[in-house]
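Structural prep section.
Before we set up the soaks we want a predicted structure of the protein with 2-phosphoglycolic acid in place, mainly to decide which crystallisation condition to try first. Input record follows.
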Amino acid sequence: MRKAIVAGNWKMHKTASEAVELVSELKPLLTGVEVETAICPPATSLQAVHAALAGSAIGLGVQNMHWEGEGAFTGELSAGMILAAGCSYVILGHSERRQYFGETDEWVNRKLISALEAGLRPIVCVGETLAEREAGRIEEVVLGQIGGALMGLEADSVTDVVWAYEPVWAIGTGVTATAAQAEEAHAMMRSFLAEQLGAEVAAGQRIQYGGSVKPDNAAELFSQDNIDGGLIGGAALAAESFAAIVKAAL
Ligand code: PGA
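Run finished without errors. Recording the tokens verbatim:
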């Protein structure tokens, strides 16, 4: 039985003090709630949020990383730095990084290898744009992104990878995929993963849904057979709504 995982992607929101305030509201709401939960604030808040999370089961993650261990890569962070800052999770290949920062499947693959070697738990995002969906290219795009991310990796090294299906047209738009649309994509992803990695590894990997998840649609999405929690953007920025979404995964 797969355990659900709910992660908050704070994107470029919250100063360190605002982040600490949100964590202090969130902690009591999630005490004793047995759902694997993580928050991914901006890098400037990591130290403060790590301290604020003391005594809580909420995990900490980042929204991106570089694949090299160190070097002349202005503006970047390595897996080792992220780990040393107290993080266990890293979001890779988010559509905003693909769209605005030129992130390619090859980069996602290098980052995934580096994150796994460091012992971070990667959350790898995939998803089609509206134009791609309307052109009937969901399968080609989504499975292409998964295949690209997995290039050269052995099945037994990727058991801990979490996938996030995030249709680009549903991110930040208020338009969520219906539970049936999401489940169809997740089932397609899982059967592709079974072909690539074997049925056992594929059956154990978590696939989150992301894209306008809110407290009022989370339970229906999370109750689908192949949906194992969510990656939450906007609704992760308020303690009450994020906690309600986490509880919907119980
Ligand atoms: P949203 O973002 O929940 O604001 O749609 C999801 C995401 O981008 O991970």
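Observations: Residues 9, 166, 171-172, 210-213, 231-235 surround 2-phosphoglycolic acid (CB under 6 Å).
Flagged for discussion at group meeting.
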